[in-house]
Amino acid sequence: MIDFRVPRSSESYESRIVRIDSQDTLVRKVNYPIKFRWNPINKNEIVGCDVWTCGKWNLITNQYDTLFSSSESFILELSANETFCFILTTTNEMERFDNYNLYKIDLKTKKIEEIKLKEHYGIINLYASNKYLAFVDYQYDEKTDNVSTQLIIYNIENEQLTIVDKAFLDQDEWLGRIDDYSVMNWENDNELYYFKQESGKSKGTILKYDVNSKTITKEFEFPYERMHSFALKEDGIIIEKDGKLLFVDKQNNEKIIYQVGYKFDFILDQFYFR
Fold first, then answer.
1. Confidence of residue 68 (pLDDT cuts 50, 70, 90)
2. Cβ pair 30, 13 in contact under 8 A
3. Residue 208 β-bridge partners
4. Each residue of 211-270: pLDDT tens digit?
5. What CA–CA distances, in Å, run from 128 to 16, 26, 41, 191, 268?
6. For the CA atoms of 177, 28, 235, 259, what is the dihedral angle to 10 degrees?
């Protein structure tokens, strides 16, 4: 997770990555351009980006390797698995849904390959497993002033696309928004957990899509309104609330996993469990 703190002896904010495991808690000051979006690829390495640069950072050795950098392209989305990093870029942020490029970057060779989708989608909330890319297709209809979203899965190997679910804002539904972060989690290459705001409900639901059986089941109900992220952990989920990371089970019992140490600190809406 990224923990933003107000240093006791500085006027500026200081950005930190906090890694928690059963043995210890590792804190690293962020000196590299990974503050916009990021994704752990193993216990010690993170792939992250700012607006123009994407790179891989080793928390133990403090080594940073640049994977992509362009002063003409803005990075809008990022996700990574153990082998590849996927980024969505545009040359004009105002046209992010109309004019963009989707790239796959090999983490070892740094080879960059553009992914050409068969249809045009307004991509937000990109999330990768080892075999699939999941994203929300965001479409705005100017005539009706309505937003529709659909959850798409892209098979990295055979390039096939599957529509998993749909939501319509005029029915008080949505599948993630532009300012959301980790609204999807691949439990494995067959099970995708994702957030959905359902019509008639004030709080969101976590659904599970089974790729093999093509079935959707309800797994969790959010205990609070407007959560921007969640992570899977054992038989529950992790959410952020008031400077705390909470483990919540299916009965909505809560346990604090991590809490910021200073009253002006806060946790950015992005965290992962591996």
1. very high
2. no
3. 193, 217
4. 999 999 999 988 888 777 888 888 899 988 888 889 999 888 999 988 887 766 777 767
5. 24, 25, 11, 12, 21
6. -90
Q: 38 exposed, middle or buried (CB, 10 Å; 0-12, 13-18, 19+)?
A: buried
User: Residue 151 corresponds to which amino acid?
Assistant: L
Cα-flanking dihedrals φ and ψ of residue 231, to 5°?
A: -135, 150
Provide the residue type at 246 as one letter: L
**Are 79 and 133 spatial neighbours (Cβ–Cβ below 8 Å)?**
yes
Q: Kindly tell me if the per-residue pLDDT of 3 is higher than 50.
A: no
Distance, in Å, from the CA atom of 42 to the CA atom of 57, rounded to the nearest integer, reads 11
Q: Measured between alpha carbons, how far is 95 from 84 in angstroms, rounded to an integer?
A: 26
Q: What does the pLDDT look like over 99-134, one tens digit per residue?
A: 999 999 999 999 999 999 989 999 999 999 999 999
Q: Is the dihedral of CA 164, 170, 172, 174 positive or negative?
A: positive
Contact status, residue 205 vs residue 193, Cβ threshold 8 Å: no
Number of H helices, E strands in the chain: 0, 24
| Across 34-38, average pLDDT | 88
Bridge partners of 210, per DSSP, are: 191, 215
